[in-house]
Amino acid sequence: MPKLLDAINKAQNDLNNSQAMLERDRLLPVPAARTNTHLAPTRINSLRNQVLRHHRERGVKIIMLTGAYPDDGTTTTAVSLATTLSMDCGLKILLTDADIQSPKLHDVFKTSPSDGLTDPANNFAGSISGKKVGPGELYFLPAGKSGHAGDGYFDSRRFLDFLGVSRKNFDFVILDTAPVLSHPDSLAICSKVDGVIIVIAHGKVRRQAAQRLKAILENAGANLLGVVVNRRRHYIPEWIYNKL
Description:
This protein is an alpha/beta fold. The protein has helices at 2-25, 41-58, 74-87, 105-108, 157-169, 187-190, 207-219; strands at residues 62-67, 93-97, 131-132, 138-141, 172-176, 195-201, 224-230. Helix 1 (2-25) packs across helix 2 and helix 2 packs across helix 3 (74-87).
């Protein structure tokens, strides 16, 4: 707990400094855009600091990331957020692939999708056997083998047990989920977690679709923490933390 509080206090100082820099930089020329799919350090640091602030102020620990459509950058954002919370803050993080129809995270970590979230062998009775990935205290739970999750898995007792056990054993739990507009089963998750972050690919999702996504999530009981605009072509601000 002291380690988490120290990380939160440090993040608050970083956030205050970042906000001051943003106000200063608004007057500077806009540099060339990045075109790769990775989040820039300034964006991921801002996202990390906001997540830590929500933990301190509202007890947020389990966070769902979702988008409107496939390839919005949700998986990249989830990996980046989990990594910086683990390596930069020294926290114990569980990154979970909850996109059970089209899981991708096991490819990122070059591991098997088995022994995962939906596999019957995992009854989550007191512990979670996540796979340690990389340095720091970052653990990964794959989605599980295809076909093990039936309809309504996210409303099942097993999924609720997973959330309860992971809350007790990790400082943060990051869920990479399927895009809501193309996989409505993700909606069953949003009311069971502490907060939801929307990831939107700049230039791909129209404002009307983003507003519809926001309304759908709120109607399903989501506590919206904010929006990450991915691959935006302007440097300031590269990610927007506000409600649409």
